[in-house]
Amino acid sequence: MATYEYEHLKGACKLGKMFEWEQPMSAEPLAACPECGQAVKRLVSAPSIRVGKSNAQVRDTGFTKLVRRDHGIYENVTPRKGESKIVNLGDQSTYPKIKH
C-alpha cells in the first residue's frame, strides 16, 4: 500500500482541501473524493524514504552519539580526535568536547 496526496478541484470537505489516501500502487488514481464525491486530482510529491545516518555522518554533521553500555557508562560512538570513547557519568574529563 502507498499513501497518495489528493487535492479537491473545488472547495473542500471534512478531509480538507488536500488529503492523503492509502491505496495499492496498482490502483488507478481517485477521480472523486471518497468522503464527499467532489472531483479530485492526485498530486505529485516526493516519496517518504527514510535512510539512517552512519555514525561517521552523525559526527561529521557536528553531533555526538552516546550509547548506554551500563549504569552511568556510555560509549561515544562518534569520538573526535582527543575525545574519550568511554564516557563515565560524573567524570567530566571523559565528556565529549562541546563547541559553542
Q: Give me the count of strands.
A: 6
CA-atom Rg in angstroms: 24 Å
Q: Indicate the mean pLDDT.
A: 91
Beta-strand percentage? 25-35%
Q: Which strand order does the major sheet show?
A: 2-1-3
Count of DSSP H/I helices: 1
Number of domains: 2
Label the overall shape: rod-shaped
Strand-pairing-aware structural class = mainly beta
**Residue ranges: pLDDT <50 for 5 or more in a row?**
none
Main sheet properties: 3 strands, antiparallel
Helix content: under 10%
- Give me the strand/helix succession: EEEHEEE
End-to-end gap: 45 Å
What order do the helices and strands come in, and which of them pair?
Blueprint: E1 2-8, E2 18-23, E3 40-42, H1 55-60, E4 66-70, E5 73-76, E6 86-88
Antiparallel strand pairs: 1-2, 1-3, 4-5, 5-6
Structure description:
The strands form two sheets. The protein has a three-stranded antiparallel sheet with strand order 2-1-3, with no helix packed on it. A three-stranded antiparallel sheet has the order 4-5-6, with no helix packed on it. With 100 residues, the chain is mainly β. The protein has two domains: 41 residues, no CATH class; 40 residues, no CATH class. The mean pLDDT is 91. It contains one helix and six strands. The longest helix has 6 residues.
